[in-house]
C-alpha cells in the first residue's frame, strides 16, 4: 500500500479506527507500521435524539 501511494504521488495515507478498547490491538498494529495518531472524530446521532422526544 505504501509503495502504491508513493508511486501515485500521495502525501499521506489516512484511516479511521474506533476509539474503544476493543480496537487497541489494531491501533498497535498501525503504529508498528509507522502510522501516527493524528485526530479525534465526533458524531451526533440524530436517530437517538429523535427517539427520546
Automatic annotation (TrEMBL):
It comes from the Bacteria. This is GNAT family N-acetyltransferase.
Amino acid at each position: 500500500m505504501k509503495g502504491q501511494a508513493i508511486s501515485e504521488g500521495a502525501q499521506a495515507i489516512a484511516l479511521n479506527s474506533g476509539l474503544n478498547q476493543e480496537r487497541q490491538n489494531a491501533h498497535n498494529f498501525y503504529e508498528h507500521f509507522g502510522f501516527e495518531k493524528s485526530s479525534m472524530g465526533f458524531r451526533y446521532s440524530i436517530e437517538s435524539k429523535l427517539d427520546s422526544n
